[in-house]
Automatic annotation (TrEMBL):
<feature type="transmembrane region" description="Helical">
    <location>
        <begin position="6"/>
        <end position="24"/>
    </location>
</feature>
<dbReference type="InterPro" id="IPR005562">
    <property type="entry name" value="SpoVA"/>
</dbReference>
<dbReference type="InterPro" id="IPR014204">
    <property type="entry name" value="Spore_V_AE"/>
</dbReference>
<feature type="transmembrane region" description="Helical">
    <location>
        <begin position="31"/>
        <end position="48"/>
    </location>
</feature>
<keyword id="KW-0472">Membrane</keyword>
<keyword id="KW-0812">Transmembrane</keyword>
<keyword id="KW-1133">Transmembrane helix</keyword>
<feature type="transmembrane region" description="Helical">
    <location>
        <begin position="54"/>
        <end position="71"/>
    </location>
</feature>
<protein>
    <submittedName>
        <fullName>Stage V sporulation protein AE</fullName>
    </submittedName>
</protein>
<feature type="transmembrane region" description="Helical">
    <location>
        <begin position="83"/>
        <end position="112"/>
    </location>
</feature>
<dbReference type="Pfam" id="PF03862">
    <property type="entry name" value="SpoVAC_SpoVAEB"/>
</dbReference>
Length: 117
């Protein structure tokens, strides 16, 4: 059942983004920033954690989840280290995910040999 909820929630998030892309003139980069900022705001309001518990991976994998991870990391770092945590928290919280994306993207580029258009 967890897989079904993750699929449904993640799919609904993707549908909402696709509707936004089709019905506005926003560029994809701006939509991604909106998603990350929305995740941060939902985390700051305390609404993302119950949503994440209910939806599982469907809530943590999209860019909303990335924004929430940034918020959590910054909050924890600020609580531990004060003002300097504002600058360190986001990097330490999401470093594994970003590193993984870079490494696997590089490996995929070696395997599939992409061409510039």
């Amino acid at each position: 059942m967890n897989y079904i909820w993750a699929f449904i929630v993640g799919g609904l998030i993707c549908v909402a983004v696709q509707i936004l892309m089709d019905n506005t003139k926003l560029l994809p980069g701006r939509i991604m920033v909106i998603l990350v900022c929305t995740g941060v705001i939902l985390g700051a309001l305390g609404w993302y954690e119950p949503f994440e518990k209910w939806a599982g991976a469907g809530a943590t994998v999209p860019l909303l989840g990335f924004g929430n991870v940034l918020f959590r990391g910054m909050k924890e770092a600020i609580d531990k280290e004060g003002f300097i945590g504002l600058f360190k928290g986001g990097f330490t919280a999401c470093s594994v995910g970003v590193s993984g994306a870079l490494i696997f993207g590089y490996i995929a580029s070696l395997i599939f040999k992409p061409k510039m258009k």
